[in-house]
Every structure is written in C-alpha cells, then in structure tokens.
User: What shape does this take?
Amino acid sequence: MSDEIVELTASQAAAAVHAGELDPGELFETYRARAAADTLNAYLWVSDRTPAGPPAGEPAATSSPLGGVPLAVKDLFCTEGVPSQAGSRILEGYRPPYSATVVRRLAQAGAPLLGKTNQDEFAMGSSNENSGFGPVRNPWDETRVPGGSSGGSAAAVAAGLAPWAIGTDTGGSVRQPAALCGIVGLKPTYGACSRFGMIAFASSLDQAGPLTRDVTDAALLLRHMVGRDPRDSTSLEFPEPIELPTREDLRGIRLGVPDELVGEGGGVQDGVRRSFEQTLELARGLGATVEPCRLPHAPHALSAYYLIAPAEASANLARFDGVRYGLRVDSGADLVSMYSRTRAAGFGPEVKRRIMLGTYALSSGYYDAYYGTALRVRTKIAEDFRTAFQSFDFVVTPTSPWTAFELGAKLEDPLAMYLNDFCTVPMPLAGIPAISIPSGLSEGLPVGFQLAGPAFSENRLLAAAYALERAIGFDSSPARRRDPGGSTP
Amino acid sequence: MNATEYEPVIGLEIHVQLKTRTKMFCGCELSFGEEPNVHTCPVCLGLPGTLPVLNARAVHFGLMIGLALGCEIAGRSQFHRKNYFYPDLPKGYQISQYDVPLCTGGHLGDVRIHRVHLEEDAAKLVHASASGRIHGAERSAVDFNRGGTPLVEIVTEPDVHSAEEARDWLGLLRSTLRVLGVSDVNMDEGSLRCDANVSVRPAGSSGLGTKTELKNMNSFRFLAQGINAEVERQVGLLRAGEQVVQETLHFDPRSGLLTALRSKEEAHDYRYFPEPDLVPLVATPEMVEAARAALPELPAARAQRFERELGLPADRAHELAFRTELADYFEQALAADGSDLDPIALANWIPPLIERIGSDTDPAQSLVSPASLAGLVKLVSARQVSTTAARDVLTRLVAEGGDPAAIVEQEGLGAISDADGGLAEIVAAALAADPDAADKVRAGNMKAIGPLVGYVMRETKGRADGGEVTRLIREQLGLG
Assistant: This one.
C-alpha cells in the first residue's frame, strides 16, 4: 500500500482522502517514515508524529481543500516552535515564535508540515552545496547536485520523500532545482504570495513557490498560497482564483524564444538544447507558434542581479549579530569582536562573499556606479519583457543551461556557478511569473523547460504548462524507485 | 589691535516622538515607563522573516507637522534603510527617509525648515556604569520597548545665530507641536530631542565655517549652555590660529563640558538604499486635506491675533501665545468676565501669576481660576483695589484660592479714595511731614514726589491708588 500511496500525485492523494479511500493519518505516516529514512540529506528536520487532527475551528482533512496531504517546507520559512535555520549555522537550532503566512495558510487549507528541507545557506546558491548542514544529493544520480537553493525541497519531491513542497525563488531557486530534479517548479508574480515569515535573502526578488510532481499539483498548492497579507506591504490580492489546468492544446499560443538567452552566448549543453527543441516541436504540434523574440538587456540580467541581490542581502543579514538569537561566539572582549567572531563562525564562504559584494556596491562613492546602474538595467529588463509580451504570450527557454552536475564540480568557481541562473534571473528582476516543467532526459538526467508570462498570468501559464506536460509524458517514477540504501536506480 | 568678531551659525535637528497608539511598523503599543521589554513583538525585535507595515496615524501626524510648518508635501516619498551595527538596532538598519522625505521647505518664525521626515526610534540602552554612559560600563542592557516608536525628524536651515535664539525657537516649535497634539514634547523624557550643528564665521561674512554636531542637550537650559560653550570653544580655537575639526560632541550637563563622541571611525557610511519591504508612501490629496482639517490655531497665528484683535504688544502676545497653556488660560479669563475687561490689563497680570505659581506650572492647575483672575483685574481697573494691594490678593489666591472680592472685603484692602474722605487728610499729613519734598514738587521737580507717595502708601498699607494720590498731591500744592 505504501508504494501505491507514494505513486499518487498530491492532488490524487487529496482526492482519495476526500473520497474516503485513503486515511490521512496513513498518508502522513507513509511520508513521515520515508522522510525520516532520507539518505539524500534533503531534510533538516522531520515531524516526529502524525498531526492529531485539525486545530479547533478548522476542517478535518477529509473536508479540507488540500486533504491533509503533508507538505515539505524549505528551511527558511519560519515555522513556530520548529527549527528554522535558513540552512545556516548562524541560526542553528533557532525556533521562531511564529509561522510564515504561506505556511499558516497551507496548514489551514489542509497541508500539514511534514518537515523542513535543506537549502543553500540563506538561499544563496545553485547547487545546495552552500548549506551549513551539508549538500543534498540528486535522487536521479546521487553523485550529482539537486540544484539550488531549494534543493532539499526539489530532491524530496522527486524522490517521493514528500508529496509536494514549497521553496523560494530569488534568481531561479525554485525553477532550477525543479529542472535538475525532474519536477515542476513555479515562481509566482512578485507580491502574489506573502513574504512574511520568509527569512529574507533579497527582499525585492524573493517569492515563495510550489515544487510539485506535476502541473496540477502546482496549481492546487499555489491556489492556497496567494493573496494579500496585511503583514506584507508588498503583497497584492491575486486578481482571480487559481484554476486547476485542463487545457489540452496550445492553439493560438505564441511562444517567443529569446536569442539573448538561448543562443550561443548562453552556453546551453547539447542535450539540453535537443530537449528544448523537441519541446518546441511538441508545442507546434499542439497548435502553438514559435518565433524568435528580443530581450536586448537580458544578457545583463545576471550582472544586475549579482549587485541588487547581494546589496539587499548585506542589510537583511545584518541582524544576525549574536545578540538576540542564534549563534553567539563571545570572546568576552568587546561588542565588536563578538559581532565579528559570531559572523565569521556562523556564515559560510558564499554568504560572506555576497555580504562583502553588497556592502561594497552600496558604499558611498560606488552606489551610483554599481547599485544605481543595476536598478536602471532592471528597469530596462522589465521593459524588454513588456515589449515581448505585446507580440508573445510566453517567453520560453531551457530552465538551466545544464543538467545536474557532479558534487564539487563548480564549487571552486563562483562565476561558473552563477551562470546556472542565466535563464532564470531575468524574470524575478521583472517581477513576472515563470514555471519550469520536465521536458525529458539527457544522458539519464532531467532537463527543464521554462515558460515566463506577464504579471498575474499564472492561470494561463499553468494551462499551457499542463498541455505541454501531457504531450511530453515525462516519467518521474525512476527517482522514486531508488534503493533506500542509497544507490541510483 | 581689534580681535576679529565671530558670529555663530546654528542649525537644529529635532527628533519628536509621535503620540500614536502603536509603533511605526508593528502593532505594539507605545511604552510609558513600563518594565523593560514588555512592548515587543517579532517585528520590532527584528526577528528573521518579519516585515514592517507603516503606521497610518504616524503619517497623518507627519503631514500635520509638515503643514503646520508650511512645508511642501511630497506626493510620493520613499523609505530607505540606514545601515549600522549597534545593539539598539535589532535589524542592523534603521528605516528612515533619505532622498525623498515626506516634507521639504517651510519655516517657523524666522527659521527656515529644510526637511521633515518619518523614521523609527532605536531601542534604549541602559549602561551599568557610574555615568550611565557606555564608557567604562561593565554591562549594557537593551530595552526594546522604545524600539520602533514613530519619530519625526525636523531639520532647520542654519538660520539661528545665538544660543538664546535657538532656545527660544525650540520653545516655539515645542508649543506648536503641543498644540498639534502629535507628541508629548517632553525633553526630560526624550519625546523631544534636539541636536545642534554649530559653526562660527567672521561677523558679516556669508560663508560657513566647519561645523560640529552637539548631542544630548536634553533641556532648554542645556541647549543654550551647550551652544554657548561650543561657540566659545570654536572662537577660542580660531583666535589661536587653530582649526575647528568636524566631529560629534556629547554635552555633559553636570560639567557643562563637551566631549568628542565616537572619536574613532568618525565617518559612518550608512549605505542608504530604498527599503524594499515598503512600497513608496503616497500622500493622497485626501490624506493631506484630512491633515489640514485637523490643524488647530498655531501659536504664531495666535500671537498675531492677540496683537491685531486684542491690541497686545508684540512681546506680550508672543509670551502668551508661545506657551499654549498660558494663552488658553488668558483666553478663558477674558471670556469669563465678558465685555469690559481690558485684554492688555489682563495680559499684564499673567506674569505676576506665573511668578507666584512657578514658571513650569500650568496656571490651569493652580488654585486661581481664570474667572477669579479676571475678577481681580476688574477690581483694579475699577480702582476698587490698588495695584499694590491686588498683588497681595493674588498671593492669597495662589496659596488658598477663593474669590478676590471676598478677600478684599474680608481683609479691608479696598482702595481708599478721596470720596471716602480719608485720603485727602493723609495726603495733607504727608505734605506737612516733608515740607522740603513738597517745596521741590511745587517748584516743578516731579521726581521729589516719590517720598510723599511713599508716606501715603505706608499710612494706607498700600490700599491707596497711586494715580489718585498723585492727583491729590498736585491739587493740594495748587498745581491743578
């Protein structure tokens, strides 16, 4: 029975609970046991008991919209009384006194917390190797990375250690690990989901998003994530309900392929390119038109991103000073030495690198040249997309230029690592939504296909992704059929 | 040889704690001397994942202040992060306004306003040391009750040219803010804090010298003392051929000395950048109109009205209007006894009242009701009691309260007049007792009248009216 349960998508599991065919306690326990036996280092904390039942005044699992289907949550979401460390040693053992709005909404809708997933420290990374708690392994090949920064969430969903998960995307941190792990990842429009309770990396870019086995699951989860939150001034009411996708064709849909991202400059692997081209063929077969489009400033997105995000991070991470919570390394000397010892011991090298970059970019005398210029590029990129969406419904690219690479392969070369985000960074800079779906395998490793649409086009995006998903017919089951001992299938 | 004369050039930076119910960016109530760390929440403690939400009431108060100071209101202003490490700042940055403040320009009295902006207060540090300051402290504790209290910062142009002017202008600002009802404006408790940027320049020149920033002058007296001390120090340096160094100085009220604060790492780089957790602040015409509608009559306008409509001299009009409680008391007394009370005569009785109740006391809190002061002034104007006797009656009123007419009656302090028959005899006795003085007055030396009047006042125990006595002396000496 346990294997059959794990083969259900989250939506199917919820439907089975609603139909009285599946006991939500058994569902939770099945995943709890699998998560507890995790050998991928995907989890940093796993719930030790099945939820006793819904809190007073809330519907039982059998009648709640999400049917009691348990949820894996990226470590950086605050969860009341449960470790929330953002993958960093500086927050080791930190248990917040409150829960993030998105986590609370999903729990109220019937998705109880299953566990907290590993991630790159403070969401800074594209391979999950920057976690303060060790790297996560890719269930398709355990010698390889799962992508990052939401690598734990992606690996857990791909390996069947969670029915579904949430992560956060700042420059690609939901979409890229989804691509490398062969699952679906959606970054919503900036402001669609509350950021309250998300330990911030780059506040003007961070956005929560679902990581799921298929597009329907993504839509179902997103439906209960969006909405204005009075505690987040940048959140907005989503203009329409999120629909479950049913569309089976792409007739009349115009797809734009930006040469700036997909052309030679992007360094796209041959296998990834082949899968991308095949997907475009499938799209044409479903009735879509595929034309080149222009995003003239997109090649500068990465440079702008690596100024804006570190600048915001340098301020966001200033609060980790050892005074009130988390790690404190006190020599007994003075305050400043306590600050610097705490931060020296608590932050990993990539976090330190970005704090220094960001501090420098904001410094008096450099602000205009760096941060100011980056903001102007950001405006241009948003304009590029607006122009493109006058002629196209969606802009499409490979999600990542590469499939999952070997652990350690890019660790010594931060710039090569940053190129992972080449195709995913422009969208958060423009605040627009984008989804990654698995488009096939290249040498046994999953490839992601990305669609980006205008702000608040999530329903259309999900519908198109759903039609493509059906046409592609990707088989995600090999990653769930690993030998629990840890060898690859 | 003539030493160069120097002229102080002073600009003020005032922080005002707003009297909202809750903090600037969270729902915690403001604190009034409660135990430490009881008015806190994840937001004002800067816990990971929390976000600020702007207090609409604080914006309303900020707009009221801007309008009261005649500022231009920005339709769209911006919050920034001001970054620095200090334990009183749990986020590692203060949310403040930087290049686009809520209000710019304007003036109060003769001093131009540079800008008015909104920000959040830091938490309070309590240092365990003899001085209460961080230097030499063994331990420091943080009280986050104050952290996140809404603040308005008001920055003036360098239009002030003496310590006394600075003190008086701050008094005017305080009354203005008090009338607006936006703050307790109490310097002791820190709800009104004033820093001064001080430089000096050769008198008559128009350039600006190197300035220093003076902090911690937490009373009107200390503000004047601190500025005077600093002006003297700077002039001393320049006369000795030395340079003024740009630095921040801390005023020690006990010694009256200024000491350099943060002498090392002086130049902070706050790395301001737009606060991404807040959307720009849009002041809609409706919000501005609501703030304008909430404005009461302001002290400067009230002083003008006292001059124009009541005929008070400018000095007296300012003295009353710039202390709202005095102006309120004055107007209540004026209204208490309607038609024929002379506003100028009434206004002249406010300073003697203040002298008796203490300059920091609100007369409304004294035993002298506005009606009884009005009654007393009316008795004086009707010459039913002499000015001298009325002062004694006022002293009694301050000590015991009561009705001035009853006190006059009871104590037999009613004015002695010619009509009573007694005064002319006493005047005659005075002339007889001092024939020298009488001769001098008769010869036209009116200065000599003093001893004669004094004699009458002694004999009548001050109940005689001075004018009436003078008239009778002249009459009896045949001076018409």
